[in-house]
Specification:
- This protein is α+β, with helices and mostly antiparallel strands.
- The chain is built from 24 helices and eleven strands.
- It has helices at about 5-25, 25-30, 50-55, 55-60, 65-75, 75-85, 95-100, 110-120, 125-130, 165-185, 185-190, 195-210, 210-230, 255-265, 265-285, 320-335, 340-350, 355-375, 380-395, 400-420, 425-445, 450-480, 490-520, 525-560; strands at about 130-140, 145-150, 155-160, 230-235, 245-250, 290, 300, 305-310, 315, 350, 395-400.
- The strands form four sheets. It has a four-stranded antiparallel β-sheet with strand order 1-2-3-5. Strands 4-8-7 form a three-stranded mixed β-sheet. The protein has a two-stranded antiparallel sheet with strand order 6-9.
- Helix 10 packs antiparallel against helix 12.
- It starts with a helix and ends with a helix.
Length: about 550
């Protein structure tokens, strides 16, 4: 698209967004989000008091209309609302609660159009399929799913991407990018969060949902991981009938977890809740990859009692370091160790250097013990993760963005388990999995292949060190290269050292004055000696005054 056509499209779409905002009563956000700029040429203008606006009583009332407004604005804004609903670290609770009601109210695409898309991507599809049901199984903003029957009699689900949606989402992302660029320049927003990084995370995640080959790969990955533990399963992908626009997979008939909870007795519900939560915990702690959106609509229970995960468009990952921090986090919660909980948060996050550690400790202790009291020891880890992020953000410690998806996924998984069994205990279920994690990482004997691979990696690093070290040392000798060294808090030490040296100098001067006055007061008889004698007394008074002043300064510093 030519630049001028793209800018015209962005301007037209922004006008439409602004008009919807105004119609739902959010006209003040048109000003505070910088949308007025798109109605006339000129400067960006300045935002209003955005933080004050969001916290106003007017916004609290209007927040209840947010889901309806975002649904009208389309798929990008529905996804944005879902993303913001998982950000209680900076979005007010009353807003996240309202956004939880957000639904994708999407009108189905006519089946004739769906057939055209299938024919374009699978020209010989009639040789594979006996029939395709015109009535969709499910309709979402990006795709539509239909039930079909293969020539061999197997039933499959065909997920078809809507091509016109991609252009709409890309246009909306351009509009949002401009708004984000404007907000990033506002001091009240900059202090709150790294909005540009958050938007990059959102847009990257949204674009990955376009490509069904990514989702197919995720399904294949989880199929191998989940089947190993025997706790859950996924549909099988029909690779020959799938590409970036179409995903064909095994159709699994099942019921929702809500229906399962209603139909089963207490013992069966407890077993099912524990089984489901264990399957999710194993993903996070043992596999390092987890379903990023395990809400009840993406979980099914088969007549045989199998738990089935659906829709792998959103997948999260944890590296070994993050997994270790999570294990330390769970252990700290189990032991009610506030200091350990703080240390985990500090290792995960990044401090701005302006933290009152006593206040941080008190707020973290309040989070832990109040949460334990409210849940009678059965903590909700998803809420605990969000709580840690909120407390840390309040005290100038920015937590990594990837914790957001993890916290949201934990909250959804725990919510599903508690709908089945309200008494399910996360910490009890996690204990044997944590023990397995520790055993695998501390006591496991590496295979010969792993040992050789580690040796090869060490050899490469040593080769780089010994090949680069001579030239680096030569550069240092010639003054061409330097070692950048930053020691946090050195300014504070230097300031204290300067004060100490000054006090020592003052003390030496005062001591010299005392000694000189003593000598002068004992100078002997005679007119000159008498004058010196009296001067000694004056010098003694000056020395005493200096001593009192120095004591006063030290006393004031100690009180601070």
């Amino acid at each position: 698209m030519a630049t001028w056509h793209r800018e015209d499209a962005v301007r037209a779409r922004t006008r439409h967004i602004a008009s919807v905002f105004i119609r739902y009563g959010f006209g003040f956000l048109v000003r505070d989000l910088g949308l007025r700029r798109f109605f006339a040429f000129g400067s960006w203008g300045r935002a209003g008091a955005l933080d004050k606006t969001i916290k106003s009583e007017e916004f609290r009332r209007l927040a209840q209309k947010l889901p309806l407004m975002l649904e009208e604005l389309g798929p990008t804004f529905i996804k944005l609302g879902q993303f913001l609903s998982s950000r209680p670290d900076f979005v007010p609770v009353f807003v996240t609660d309202a956004l939880q009601r957000l639904q994708e109210q999407v009108t189905p695409v006519p089946f004739a159009h769906i057939q055209e898309i299938i024919a374009e991507n699978l020209p010989d599809y009639k040789e594979w399929f006996v029939s395709i049901d015109p009535e969709p199984l499910g309709v979402a903003s990006i795709a539509q799913t239909h039930l079909a029957t293969l020539q061999d009699g197997r039933k499959v689900a065909i997920k078809v991407r809507k091509p016109e949606v991609i252009n709409q989402i890309e246009l909306d992302l351009m509009v949002l990018q401009k708004i984000v660029g404007f907000l990033a320049e506002q001091p009240e927003v900059y202090k709150l969060l790294d909005i540009e990084n958050s938007f990059a995370l959102f847009s990257h995640s949204l674009r990955k949902e376009f490509d069904f080959t990514v989702e197919a790969g995720n399904i294949q990955l989880f199929s191998g991981l989940l089947s190993g533990a025997g706790l859950a399963r996924t549909p099988q992908v029909e690779w020959s009938l799938s590409n970036e626009n179409i995903l064909t997979m095994e159709f699994i008939d099942g019921i929702s977890i809500e229906e399962a909870a209603e139909k089963q007795d207490l013992a069966a519900r407890r077993k099912l809740a524990s089984k489901f939560l264990e399957s999710f915990l194993r993903q996070v702690l043992l596999y390092g990859v987890f379903h990023g959106d395990p809400h009840s609509g993406n979980i099914r229970l088969t007549p045989a009692g199998e738990i089935v995960y659906l829709d792998f468009g959103i997948v999260g990952r944890t590296d070994p370091r993050m997994t270790e921090r999570l294990v330390e986090n769970f252990t700290a919660i189990q032991n009610s160790d506030v200091e350990a909980l703080m240390n985990v948060a500090l290792e995960m996050g990044q401090s701005s250097g302006h933290t009152n550690w006593q206040n941080y400790y008190e707020d973290m202790a309040e989070l832990l013990f109040v949460s334990q009291g409210m849940t009678q020891g059965k903590l909700e880890i998803g809420k605990m993760i969000f709580g840690m992020m909120q407390v840390s953000q309040k005290h100038g410690i920015r937590m990594p963005e990837r914790l957001l998806l993890l916290g949201k996924a934990f909250a959804q998984a725990e919510g599903n388990a508690r709908r089945i069994d309200p008494d399910v205990n996360f910490l009890e279920i996690s204990r044997p999995i944590i023990e397995e994690f520790l055993h695998n990482n501390l006591l496991a004997r590496p295979s010969e292949t792993v040992v050789l691979a580690n040796a090869l990696a060490a050899k490469k690093k040593l080769r780089i060190v010994f090949s680069e070290l001579p030239s680096f040392l030569s550069g240092m000798i010639r003054g061409e290269k330097k070692i950048p060294l930053t020691i946090s808090g050195i300014e504070f030490i230097g300031e204290k050292l300067d004060k100490s040296i000054n006090r020592i100098s003052y003390s030496l001067i005062i001591a010299s004055m005392f000694l000189t006055s003593a000598i002068m007061m004992h100078s002997g008889a005679g007119p000159i000696q008498a004058q010196i004698h009296h001067t000694g007394y004056y010098l003694l008074l000056v020395a005493l005054g200096g001593t009192l002043y120095l004591f006063f300064r030290i006393f004031r510093q100690m009180k601070k």
